[in-house]
Write a structure and sequence with these properties.
With 279 residues, this protein is α/β, with parallel strands linked by helices. The chain has 7 helices and 8 strands, in the order αβαββαβααββαββα. The structure holds pyridoxal-5'-phosphate (PLP).
């Protein structure tokens, strides 16, 4: 949207937990610091592949020290800040300049329902475009058209508010725990399976792993995961996805529904194992 192009992105190394490595971030920022090329750091609170939550508090301190805008992409993960036991994972998020969140991922609202929080209310004004025929500057009416790139907007907030009122915030936060607990238990289970390799210790509700074939070389192992994935999709009973963790092809379980149980995930792992023996 900003027209910066992918060549304008500077990747930052992650640590073993797949979270931004704060020392590497400092190095990357200081390497560009003198020319002030870098104007924004994007931390992720729940990455797409592994659901990892970057260490937001030290990233926010660094950004403030160097005068850089901090955006936190909480599209997938931010809902889990509502769960008291997970809250600490998001420490420092209130220091971000902007935060995005997709209630359509966990809150049972129709797609799309995305929310953008700005630390300073006035920052929404940067998106405003006024003209003489609409979005008039002197209009006293509240107008979401001046707070976003598109002018004509559906009333997505209505579905969000209705969903929260219907589910009750307390009950909802309790239910959000279920997939997190199920995924953590599945990680513990996978850790003890000699024919499986756990590829991330889950911060939130995403788990990556792979099936180990005895004596298989790297490229054969990668191909095995792809064949297992194809087999599960063809079978059509369960849904699984595939990703790349470092140089390893991984099978990926995403538990979003509040009804997901460890038993259900174990059943999927059983099916993965069964398919791995046939492909
Ligand atoms: C971390 C993160 N950011 C952004 C997105 C984009 O989501 P959407 O296109 O649904 O807004 C996703 C999708 O899974 C995501 O995981």
């Amino acid at each position: 949207m900003l027209g910066l192009g992918e060549q304008s992105l500077v990747g930052v190394e992650v640590d073993k937990s797949r979270r931004i490595d704060i020392d590497k971030l400092r190095e990357a920022l200081e390497a560009h610091g003198t020319s002030r090329d870098i104007f924004c750091v994007v931390a992720t609170a729940g990455t797409t592949s592994t659901g990892s939550v970057d260490p937001i508090a030290p990233i926010a301190d660094l950004c403030r020290e160097l005068g850089i805008w901090l955006h936190v992409d909480g599209a997938y993960g931010l809902a889990y800040k509502l769960v008291p036991e997970w809250k600490n994972l998001f420490a420092g998020i209130q220091e971000a300049d902007s935060v995005s969140w997709d209630p359509h991922k966990q809150l049972a609202v129709p797609i799309p329902c995305s929310v953008l929080f700005c630390r300073r209310n006035g920052d929404f004004g940067r998106m405003a475009y006024h003209s003489s025929y609409f979005n008039r500057e002197d209009s006293p009416e509240p107008n979401p058209g001046t707070k976003s790139a598109p002018t004509t907007r559906p009333l997505a907030a209505l579905a969000l508010v209705t969903s929260i009122v219907h589910q009750g915030l307390f009950g909802l936060t309790q239910r959000l725990k279920a997939p997190l607990a199920a995924v953590k238990e599945a990680a513990r289970y996978l850790e003890n399976q000699p024919d499986m390799e756990l590829l991330n210790w889950p911060d939130t509700g995403i788990l990556c792993f792979r099936v180990m074939g005895p004596g298989l070389q790297k490229n054969r192992l990668d191909a095995l995961q792809k064949r297992i994935y194809d087999g599960i999709i063809k079978d059509g009973k369960r849904s699984i996805s595939i990703s790349q963790i470092g140089d390893k092809t991984a099978l990926r379980l995403v538990a979003i529904s509040t009804l997901v149980t460890f038993e259900a995930l174990k059943e999927t792992i059983r099916e993965v194992r069964a398919i791995s023996k046939t492909v």
